[in-house]
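Posting this for the archive.
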Amino acid sequence: MKQQIDSTPGGDRCCWVVKIGSALLTDTVVGLNGDAIRDWVEQIVNLRRSGLDVVLVSSGSIAEGMQRLGWKERPHALYQLQAAAAVGQMGLIQAYESAFQKHGLKTAQVLLTHDDLADRQRYLNARTTLRTLLELGVIPVVNENDTVVTDEICFGDNDTLAALVANLTDADQLIILTDQEGLHDKDPRHHPDAKLISTGVAGDQGLEGMAGPGSTLGRGGMLTKLKASAKAARSGTTTIIAPGGLDQVLEKLLSGEAIGTRLEPQHSRLAARKQWLAGHMRCSGSLTIDQGAVTVLREAGRSLLPVGVTAVDGKFSRGEVVACVDQNGKEVARGLVNYSDEEARKIIGFSSDQIEGRLGYVDEPELIHRDNLWVN
């Protein structure tokens, strides 16, 4: 049976977040595996040519740093991990940049920490940057910023990071490539009769008891992948845990082959997105909008532009939640605002192409982008 590859309604391009684990990229003897990286790059290039937007979340910086520093075992001290990451990140990004350049594609390095996504303003900045890179045809190469994280704020594994990137980009699919065939009902390394779980629901706690530990190079085992699928599902993303050692695995997934373990979200993409955003909701202010804007939001599902706003109430910063109310004070929608209250007061009633003239700069053409707004 073939899997159905999702598509985004309304003509938008589909987006896949592809996470490649350390075991598929490097080992403690030879560092980065150049042949493997070139193969992954070629597969991603083919995905791009098929019309997909692709964000690559790549492990390997610490493992590469260990090799360059001559370390045979992963250190436990945070400062040593940060040093290894700083050394290894150079080689990792150089390898990807060189490989993609041979296919005429540009790359961008994106380093994130948990704080970047916990803070609403930085969340919007990261989201906007990734969206812009994809629109420009650039391949974002994302990794945790291991050189600055601490035990308290680190993602803990790139599976979790990949899930949060899927939230940022509203990805259709999160592909977690690993050295395992997928999730089994028992650890296949110790139980030859273990059976592959081909499909399931993201967030099903019954599946977590089947997960085994990770490798010595990476931090994430099967359990972290299951938890990551639940996080990705918050924005309606389907997760596929697939064997990275399978020849042309990404292209086979694109063609619809049933490979690995497919974990579907419990809710539709739109419902999941709204539910996820609703979890961040506490209005810091409000925007009064005219009837034309009310109609556009309710019937056309468009973004809220400054020209449709007549008044600003409250104090808020970029990235905070504001309510959108009609002329009678009834709430119509709410969402994450792109400008502070002071900035909003200067641009309301004006068209988007006048924002720069009013402020001296422009962050976004919308007060609230449709992806960060939902209607009551």
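Residues 1-11, 215-219 have pLDDT under 50 and may be disordered. DSSP finds 14 helices and 15 strands in the chain.
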